[in-house]
Design brief:
- With 259 residues, the chain is an alpha/beta fold.
- The protein contains 9 helices and 5 strands; from the N terminus they run βαβαβαβαβααααα.
- Strands 2-3-4-1-5 form a 5-stranded parallel β-sheet, with helices on both faces.
- β2, α2 and β3 form a beta-alpha-beta unit.
- α8 runs antiparallel to α9.
- The longest helix is centred in the C-terminal third of the chain and has 23 residues.
- The protein is globular, with a radius of gyration of 19 Å.
Length: 259
């Protein structure tokens, strides 16, 4: 009997209500347990991938979030006809907007796709009442789709340096001093969450031989790789700024070596 899948019950969707920085550790635990419980339910290049449902006001006629999600899922499917696995969707931008038409369209789409995809919805509950209003709306629209709500407690917040050290240790990655400073620098920017940094380290661990030290060139190589996942976690402006920070950090490193 697992921690998340009681009596080996699968499939099941989850809603994580949390302000905790360790929420993506819980995501990993859920996905890993699901794979052990029902490995035949997964196919594609990854067992899970993240997606942020960006807020679009109802007067804006350009709601393309579901097309963006379908495109990402198609890429994650690899040589399979349809991706099967977990999609980790952050719904937090729709807090206080849960009654709007685009949110209803999105959740109804999730309902329709439940045969293929399973969902872990993440909801920031800094404002507990507003978060619960959104969760209630999700559960109402999903109706008979199994969905378990879990509230994660906030743990003592780590410093940026501590977090980088912890995440590198978790994925058994040895980063150069420059890479560590680059990751810390990202965490200092309001646009980049711990989720993005965690995913970056995790993907490097999965795509490269990490028996050697991960340097800035390796990070840059990953970011330019077509299999790069975290670019889907950012909008174009965030991605451009990310690459600009990366380039400047690398230039600074090269200059220091030359001097």
């Amino acid at each position: 009997m697992g921690k998340y899948f009681k009596n080996n019950f699968y499939p099941q969707n989850f809603i994580l209500l949390t302000t905790a920085e360790n929420k993506y550790q819980a995501v990993d635990e859920i996905v890993n347990e699901a794979v052990l419980t029902a490995p035949e339910k997964f196919n594609g290049r990854r067992k899970s991938f993240p997606f942020e449902l960006r807020y679009v006001p109802p007067f804006d006629k350009n709601f393309r979030e579901l097309k963006r999600l379908q495109g990402t899922a198609a890429e994650m499917a690899g040589y399979h006809d349809e991706y099967r696995g977990y999609i980790v969707i952050d719904l937090s931008e729709y807090i206080k907007h849960e009654l709007e038409v685009y949110f209803e369209i999105a959740v109804k789409f999730f309902y329709d796709m439940n045969e293929y995809w399973k969902f872990i919805f993440v909801v920031d509950n800094s404002n507990q009442k507003s978060a619960l209003d959104l969760v209630s709306r999700v559960l109402f629209i999903l109706d008979d789709v199994p969905c378990r709500v879990i509230e994660l407690k906030q743990e003592e917040r780590l410093t940026n340096m501590q977090y980088v050290e912890e995440i590198c240790e978790k994925y058994k990655v040895t980063c150069s001093k420059e890479v560590q400073l680059f990751l810390q620098n990202l965490l200092e920017q309001k646009e980049y969450s711990q989720q993005i940094v965690s995913m970056l380290v995790r993907e490097i661990a999965g795509n490269f031989d990490t028996s050697c030290v991960v340097n800035m060139e390796l990070v840059k190589e990953y970011m330019k790789n077509q299999d790069c996942v975290i670019k889907y976690m950012m909008n174009p402006k965030q991605f451009d700024k990310f690459m600009d920070i990366l380039e400047k950090r690398e230039e600074k490193q090269n200059y220091a070596k030359a001097v």
